[in-house]
Amino acid sequence: MKRYGAxxxxxxALLVVAAFxxxxxxxxxxxxxxxxxxxxxLPPAILPTTFNFDNYGEVFKRVPLLAFMLNSxxxxxxxxxxHVFISSMAAYAFARLSFPGxxxxxxxxxxxxxxxxxxxxxxxxxxxSKLDLVDTHAALILPALINPFGIFLIRQMMMTIxxxxxxxxxxxxxxxxxxxxxxxxxxxxxxxxxxxxMTFIAHWNDFFRPLIFLNTAEKMTLPIGMTVLxxxxxxxxxxxxxxxxxxxxxxxxxxxxxxQKYLIEGIAGGGLKV
Amino acid sequence: MRMRRSVKDGFAGYLxxxxxxxxxxxxxxxxxxxxxxxxxxQYNVITPHRWTGIDNLRQFWHDxxxxxxxxxxxxxxxxxxxxxxxxxxxxxxxxTRGISSRWKYFYRTAxxxxxxxxxxxxxxxxxxxYDNDFGVLxxxxxLLGIERIPWLQSPKWVYLAVAIxxxxxxxxxxxxxxxxxxxxxxRTLYEAAEIDGASAAQxxxxxxxxxxxxxxxxxxVTTLIGATQIFDEPYLITGGGPGDASRSVNMYxxxxxxxxxxxxxxxxxxxxxxxxILLVTALQFRFSRQWVxxxxx
Amino acid sequence: MMRRTKSVAVLTLILALFAxxxxxxxxxxxxxxxxxxxxxxxAKGKQEVTxxxxxxxxxxxxxxxxxxxxxxxxxxxxxxxxxxxxxxxADYFNKIQTMIAGGKAPDVIRxxxxxxxxxxxxxLLLPLDDYMEKFPDALENYEDLHPKLQSPFVVDxxxxxxxxxxxxxxxxxxxxxxxxxxLSVPPSDWTRDDFLRYAxxxxxxxxxxxxxxxxxxxxxxxxxxxxxxNEASVLDESMTSSKLDxxxxxxxxxxxxDLIYKYKVSPVPNPKSDMINDLISGRVAMISAxxxxxxxxxxxxxxxxxxxxxxxxxxxxxxxxSGAFPVLKSTKQPEAAFKLSAFLSSSFSQKTTLSxxxxxxxxxxxxxxxxxTPAEHWQVYAxxxxxxxxxxxxxxxxxxxxxFNRYMSSIxxxxxxxxxxxxxxxxxxxxxxxxx
Lengths: 274, 297, 436
Fold this sequence. Notes:
The structure holds three protein chains of three kinds.
Chain A lengths: L1 H31 L21 H9 L2 H32 L5 H10 L5 H14 L7 H7 L3 H12 L3 H9 L4 H12 L1 H16 L3 H6 L8 H9 L7 H11 L1 H22 L3
Helix pairs in contact in A: 1-13, 2-13, 3-6, 3-7, 3-10, 3-12, 7-10, 8-9, 10-14, 12-13
Chain B lengths: L1 H37 L2 E2 L7 E2 L3 H8 L1 H32 L5 H16 L2 H11 L6 H8 L13 H27 L3 H9 L4 H29 L3 H7 L10 H10 L4 H29 L6
Antiparallel strand pairs in B: 1-2
Helix pairs in contact in B: 1-12, 2-12, 3-7, 3-9, 4-7, 5-10, 7-9, 7-10, 9-12, 11-12
Chain C lengths: L1 H36 L9 E6 L7 H14 L3 E6 L5 H14 L6 E2 L1 E2 H9 L7 H6 L12 H4 L3 E2 L2 E2 L5 E4 L1 E5 H6 L11 H11 L1 E3 L2 E7 L4 H10 L17 H15 L13 H6 L3 E6 L3 H7 L5 E4 L9 E7 L9 H10 L3 H7 L5 E2 L2 H7 L9 H9 E3 L6 H16 L5 H17 L2
Parallel strand pairs in C: 1-2, 1-3, 10-11, 13-15
Antiparallel strand pairs in C: 4-13, 5-6, 7-13, 7-14, 8-11, 8-12, 9-10
Helix pairs in contact in C: 2-14, 3-17, 17-18
């Protein structure tokens, strides 16, 4: 009986928290469907009562939301592609090759994890401005291609792969490059998929760096674009703003549906056994 | 034979490492050195920099606003770190009990999905939710007979506002790590404990917590570093206000560097934050030996 | 040995792939840039000029009309527009400084009075006087530009731009709410007590729909206008030290605080909320703003609007801010840039672009455009140009705005009383002014 009560209590608490997590989304979507002049009317819209889709058209008229999303997709996508190769190559070197200075270099890389972004961002800004790269997407992509955490996680995974697989390939006449490309890389796909998902999310949502590196409207990524929608130059009604917010939810939704498997498998598959 | 293999490996090793190493030097190592150098200069990016010695350091000691920012950041750490660590664990424990996989999927989706959405977008919505006179939250509290709370207008409530948002947006991170950590604990251990007659509380404290300690440690280190560097949440929701009440050190660095264009002083402040993070992290690793057990499985 | 050579070849290939990837992402953005700022056209006798002018100020359609007209006289000048995203003036100037620092300096920039000193005193602007003499035809009748509004763009005897738009701060009324409260728009000489009476009468709570009488302008330009009316200001006349610790300034700021906590006629400003929206949706009945809300009124087809001067406190003044298009010194096309800058102050330009977000600065255009304002008391805008005072904006404007807004927020959130906050603000502003 006591067990049963505790169970009910736990279930209740979990459901309350789940409801709390969903409620803002419901409010956002419901309010985005209200007429602009009613957007603030009380009681607030938790469930949609009106279905006025004009706000969605209004968003696209006011700000180039689609362009913002494409910019974000370009930036995050290129970073992920770069990450897949650069991090996995470095991880391969650390995990499966021996060369002088390997451990020292690895330690230095790891300590890079501790350096907070705001220490390096000022010199990076100066450097990129000297290279005429401020206000280009390259300013967001290039520094993000080095990802010590990703290298670390992929290395952990690669170290668990038995040497026999690669040796079999060497006997067949493969070199290190083929060993990497044909044997180790395919076997590391779960962890690379996980770090790619994490990298993509981080840069899709990144606010700080675009805030500093981008100036012109046409290059804006989504997070900064959203502040424009709400900002003084956008000036709109709440319903339209929330229609914009709703649109931004689509990509994460797709991502969750298709990406969560890799994320969870990757973390569970040993990545986090620090 | 052996020798030749290693030489060849060495060559390949550097080649494989080359892109990462190059990027590391250009975008991490060099900036760190430059940052230290800049701390002793005055530089606004447009006109050439000027060596000013310890002027910045002097300003640092007398900067009252900076003291306030460090106090605010400490508040964030003290509120957010325990919140994510404890509530994340409780949710994970609840969602990994013997419930159907459909429920597990439901909880995982509910708690984790906000992590994926664009902060800047949902924070805009949250700042309206928190509106004093017209916001949803105060309306709902009103139904319960609770007076309107000045979420974003009071130096006290503003921290609760950021904490609630932070819970909503980021609890999924800690939650997911805990869930996976818990799932990795072999069931046989629990069964053995049950046979030995251990109570639920005993098996939690003697089995679950020690087995989970590497995950707990990981969550501690990451949430602590995250809270020390907090920027997006106050920037987007409170704007650092009212006044300076919720402005973090990182927001201050942004203001000094990119709004006042005082790159030198901003570098010094950022280095100070770096040293603090380094010290705290080092201490954590030092003490982790006493409670984190890696010799599992 | 063979194997090794092959490995190296493949690895090199991968590296090359990266290099091209990086080049592609750098190049991709560079290409976009090429049409915007390169001067490849110069070789063919075509000059390219880049202007920073936000879409919020001038739409693509308006710009197209403008440039067609401009190219009739100047067929060889190709104009490219860049929009900059920002939060307020200080942030906007900041972004332009970042562009200059980042080696991406435009040729012509839209600058309001708030930024002119900042750019001029840093020696970033090109004096235009010589070009005015050299190309007298480029600039339409200089005398027609309202001299008071033009004056901020003449710094130390050098002309840095030709005034295009201006704005002031007046009271906007939701006339539906006035009617409900049985009030009409007050006369221009209304006082502090009248204002308070209006605000109280307009504060209502009907069927759960709360309406506040007045939304406090919690930003530099708007608050400055009210300070002026109490014989106070943020800075002294020479703009070398702050006057916020003056009793008049403290009194005004305390009045703002009282409007929220004592009289309860104003909402506590939300850092993100939009007053114009609140006025339209009837959540507040009065706001103080310039001409810019008329853009939003027009878009949302909101008609129940009228305006009046701000109420009289110790005195009754009007604040103004004006804007122009200075040329950056670093431009490679100074003549073309000058011609564009001059053209943008022309009657044609003002008539095309200044319908509702801002007020034209040519006396002739003002006479034509202002009567079309959809508000009964539109005359208020026309009359105030002659008596208006410029918003105080020294070189350190960005920092001062930040300090002022921060302490205003402390006051309005009831963290500090006005006297304490304003004394602290003065200390910080003085320190900022002392910096070079």
